[in-house]
Write a structure and sequence with these properties.
alpha/beta, Gyrase A, domain 2, 4-stranded antiparallel sheet, 25 helices
Length: 720
């Protein structure tokens, strides 16, 4: 008798229905039969079919008809000989296995197959899981960690379930964030880089550049607001207003000039003036000519002199005296910060050098990019993560632009260059009356690429160069609409395999306020986070040495304890990221994650270590002829066997639904049932026949725990 898995049992019931001339429903539900000492499954499928017949207008009594169908099914199932007993009870189809035979086969399979126990049959399908995708020139933080844990575990599960799983990383190695970091390096830190942790140091430079450019932007807005106030809000008709307006327009005319360059500038200046009068914000990053910013700065400097000059000839009795004094005070409070005013221009000039592929800048980019990649590799090594393929944004930029050209040629997009970007009005293209996909920009007005430009090319490369059947993108939930848009644009372009692209979204990670906060609490660096986890794990491991509850723990030297602490820290961090559904935020708490009790990795790891300890005490001998049909099975043993038998089903379920959560929950339940077994069923002190069986059951449990933890990327320590 072969041990059937749930999907095989449902197929047997489905065939029995068809052989009886009945059409089975799309899905057949199975439930464990909770009879002590018996191993079985029950299905309410006959009730489902009887109810459907009645709804279709047939005159049937549901309970009676369900029993009739159940008896037909059971008659067919008995002929197959796969089950020790088959029953039709009150409309339910109940199938039973001999518990002893099931135990022999299950434990025997686990000890024969070892690391392959629970592995699915080959599916003949290649699936790519793209995950991590950190930006170079930024620090690796806790937000990246959930992505890595989820992607790594999913790829492990898919491969174990029988798919050919390819793992891919797609670092963002170009873009404005890189230019910001390089600007900060060249402006403030050139030649002063540290000897180690250079990747993280680049992240700190990026944070510094973001802060400085933000301050400069705020200053520019103060200047613009004051200019607008003086020109527009000073009461019309007053001498001050008339004088300032005259000088303002003289400055504008002087800037415009007559040559061709100035004529180009004319459009930008008038656009800016129009923005002044419409009270719209100005963004100098969107203005092509730096002369605009220069002119505003000259106007700002001149304005202070004009105000002082106008104020000199006035006495306190003059109506304009106090308003002018107030304007002067406000002008002085905003102040002259020419360095900050120039930051935006410096950044824009550096971007222009990048677009022209300046050789010195490219050399610096390549050198600093490698610093980040080296840091990422160190972290991946610490997490036990490797990738089959590495894609880079810089590699698919040109390909993406070629695809955009094809999209334009097909009339799918709207090309507004040079005054606007290239965009795709997806809803309009699909003929949707209600907004769903909205509009996506696929190329900037100046012809530079966006994330979308490159993602179009990346999708094409994945399928055409690496021949994948499915492509899974592990990216946070904030990009949900974006990926819907990208996949739809690919479809509109004619890329049929876009339907095989799937965005696996996940929510963010939060930490309790005030813990390990960097950059004013906005980012928690991975290195700080893991160092804290390791410190707390070591303390937890040491504390267990004085706890009577863990009296079976072996003596360990300091080096061994540190090794265990690292395994516990990795387990706590990874399990904490995987034991919560993807669509829920994680509030990571060290106290809970590192607990040896409850649904945590240390609890599961300790169950594995306890299995190892029992086998060690038994002399490491694994019985070759353990026969469970010759001994009576306790409820705790049947429950443990039942959990082990469910491992392969949970692997398939997790692969099918892209949810490592199922394996995380399963392992906790398995560990819990093992601890119940450990409490109720002595191994070493049992009679010889019982001892052999229980020892084999412990070894099989250890293997199942080890295989499951491996799927989650969590170490399975032999001692704790």
């Amino acid at each position: 008798m072969a041990l059937l898995q749930q999907d095989e049992i449902t197929q047997a019931i489905r065939k029995a229905l068809q052989d009886s001339g009945l059409e089975p429903p799309p899905s057949i539900v199975l439930n464990r039969i909770p009879f002590s000492g018996r191993w079985g499954w029950g299905s309410p499928v006959c009730f489902q079919m009887a109810s459907a017949e009645r709804k279709a207008g047939k005159k049937v009594q549901v309970n009676q008809r369900a029993q009739e169908i159940a008896e037909l099914v059971c008659r067919r199932l008995r002929q197959g000989g796969s089950f020790s007993q088959v029953e039709a009870v009150k409309g339910y189809v109940n199938v039973f296995f001999d518990a002893g035979e099931v135990a022999n086969q299950l434990v025997g399979s686990a000890l024969d197959q070892l690391g392959d126990f629970g592995r699915g049959r080959p599916k003949g399908e290649r699936v790519m899981v793209e995950y991590s995708q950190p930006n170079t020139h930024k620090a690796f933080h806790v937000g990246h960690l959930r992505n890595v844990c989820l992607g790594h575990s999913l790829s492990n599960i898919l491969g174990f379930a029988g798919f050919e799983a390819l793992t891919a990383n797609y670092p963002g190695d170009i873009g404005l964030h890189v230019i910001k970091c390089l600007w900060c390096y060249l402006r403030f830190h050139k030649g002063r880089e540290p000897d180690e942790h250079r990747g993280r140091w680049l992240g700190e430079l990026y944070a510094q550049s973001d802060r400085l450019l933000g301050q400069a932007g705020a200053y520019r807005n103060q200047v613009l607001a004051f200019v607008r106030k003086v020109i527009l809000e000073e009461p019309a008709g007053t001498p001050v207003r008339l004088e300032l307006a005259q000088r303002y327009w003289q400055s504008l005319e002087s800037a415009l000039g007559d040559d061709s360059t100035s004529r180009e500038l004319h459009t930008d200046l008038l656009a800016m003036v129009r923005q002044f009068f419409l009270d719209e914000p100005l963004d100098f990053n969107e203005i092509a000519h730096r002369e605009v910013a220069d002119w505003v700065w000259r106007l700002w400097n001149d304005l202070g002199g004009w105000l002082k000059e106008l104020a000199q000839g006035l006495s306190e009795e003059d109506e304009a005296y106090q308003p002018l004094q107030d304007l002067l005070k406000e002008y002085e409070s905003v102040g002259h910060r020419p360095e900050e005013w120039g930051y935006a221009r410096e950044l824009r000039q550096l971007f222009q050098r990048w677009e022209k592929r300046d050789s010195q800048l490219l050399t610096l980019w390549e050198r600093t990019r490698q610093w980040s990649l080296d840091d990422f590799q160190r972290i991946y090594s610490e997490l036990g993560v490797t990738f089959d393929l590495w894609f880079y944004e810089s590699e698919v930029e040109d390909e993406g632009k070629e695809i955009v050209d094809e999209i334009i040629a097909k009339g799918i997009s709207t090309d507004l260059r040079p005054s606007g970007p290239v965009l795709v009005e997806i809803d309009k293209q699909l003929g949707l009356s209600q907004p769903k996909y909205r509009t996506i920009v696929i190329l900037r007005s100046d012809g530079t690429s966006l994330y979308s430009t490159k993602d179009l090319a990346l999708a094409k490369r994945k399928f055409e160069e690496h021949h994948v059947d499915r492509s899974i993108y592990v990216v946070d939930v904030g990009q949900a609409l974006y990926f819907q848009q990208v996949f739809k644009v690919l479809e509109l372009w004619g890329f049929e395999r876009a339907k095989k692209c799937h965005h696996l979204a996940y929510e963010i990670v939060r930490l309790p306020a005030g813990k390990m906060s960097s950059r004013e609490g906005e980012v928690v660096f991975y290195d700080d986070f893991f160092a804290e986890a390791l410190k707390r794990a070591r303390q937890s491991v040491d504390d267990k040495r004085g706890d009577e509850q863990y009296s079976d723990l072996p003596d360990l030297d300091s080096e061994q304890r540190q090794e265990v602490a690292r395994a516990v820290a990795l387990g706590a961090v990874k399990y904490g990221m995987l034991a919560v559904d993807n669509n829920k935020q994680i509030l990571f708490d060290f106290e809970s994650a590192l607990s040896f009790d409850g649904q945590t990795a240390p609890y599961i790891q300790y169950a594995h270590a306890r299995c190892c300890r029992i086998l060690e005490k038994a002399g490491g001998f694994l019985p070759q002829q353990a026969d469970f049909t010759q001994v009576g099975l306790e409820i705790a043993e049947v429950n443990l066997l039942e959990s082990m038998a469910d491992f392969a089903n949970q692997v398939q379920r997790a692969a099918r639904e892209y949810k490592p959560l199922y394996i995380a929950v399963y392992l906790y339940q398995l560990a819990k049932r093992f601890n119940d077994f450990y409490r109720d069923c002595p191994v070493i002190r049992a009679t010889e026949e019982v001892r052999q069986c229980r020892q084999a059951l412990v070894a099989a449990t250890r293997q199942t725990l080890s295989n499951g933890l491996r799927l989650l990327g969590i170490p399975a320590p032999e001692y704790m």
